[in-house]
Design a protein that fits this description.
Blueprint (H helix, E strand, L loop, with lengths): L16 E6 L5 H11 L4 E5 L6 H13 L5 E4 L4 H9 L4 E5 L1 H13 L4 H4 L7 H16 L6 E7 L10 H20 L2 E6 L2 E4 H4 L6
Parallel strand pairs: 1-5, 1-6, 2-3, 2-4, 4-5
Antiparallel strand pairs: 6-7
Helix pairs in contact: 3-6, 4-7, 6-7
């Protein structure tokens, strides 16, 4: 589907969870915002970025200024389930942007370091702890009222070369795991390619021999 032809009918009150994923600069956030705006419903934006340096502060300010005036904004770097519950009291469409930054925040909190030498001894992410976090988010989605929709933006980082450092490999594996969990639970999953959205959930079918 072309991102130039988004209509309110693309998202109905029975669509509880929409996942939008793709590579860097593939048009994920812009598509998600157009999808939310085209619904003609109230919108709450859940931002997960942390302003750790001047460049990121400028980026956050630019994104904040570009959103429609009537949208609510919640800044929450870690507690996604809590943010969804809070946002659901403010609006009908909840836009979470993005899982990619949230996971970086979560991994840093879990391991307490982003130093490669200190991290090298941890070859795998804690799947149990991550499963608990994702489960809490999906439980919050399940308890949304019938007229509420959550749109989640995330990156696909597993299509390139294998990261050269342990932290990069753990991050890639963890994000792949989270994306799979979200995609299974979602009503719709859009893959962004050069600014164009393909509904891969609609195209998916179970393989058989």
């Amino acid at each position: 589907m072309s991102n130039n032809h988004i209509t309110p009918s693309e998202q109905t009150v029975t669509t509880r969870l929409i996942v939008i994923l793709g590579g860097a600069r593939s048009g994920k956030s812009a598509f998600a915002e157009r999808l939310a705006a085209s619904s003609d419903r109230s919108v709450a934006f859940i931002a997960t970025a942390i302003a750790g340096d001047d460049e990121m502060r400028e980026r956050i300010a630019r994104h904040r200024a570009s959103r429609p005036k009537g949208w609510h904004t919640l800044e929450e770097p870690l507690d996604l389930a809590g943010a969804v519950r809070t946002a659901s009291n403010l609006a009908e469409v909840l836009l979470l942007d993005c899982i990619t930054l949230w996971l970086a925040n979560w991994l840093f909190q879990q391991y307490g370091t982003n130093d490669e030498e200190e991290f090298a001894s941890s070859a795998l992410f804690d799947e149990g702890a991550l499963k608990k976090e994702v489960g809490a988010l999906l439980e919050a989605v399940n308890f949304l009222a019938p007229n509420k929709t959550l749109i989640v933006v995330t990156n696909e980082v597993g299509l390139g070369i294998v990261p050269a450092y342990p932290l990069g490999r753990v991050y890639r594996d963890a994000l792949g795991y989270v994306n799979q969990c979200l995609a299974r639970a979602a009503n719709r999953v859009y893959l962004m390619v050069a600014g164009l959205a393909v509904d891969i959930k609609r195209l998916h079918e179970e393989a058989s021999l």
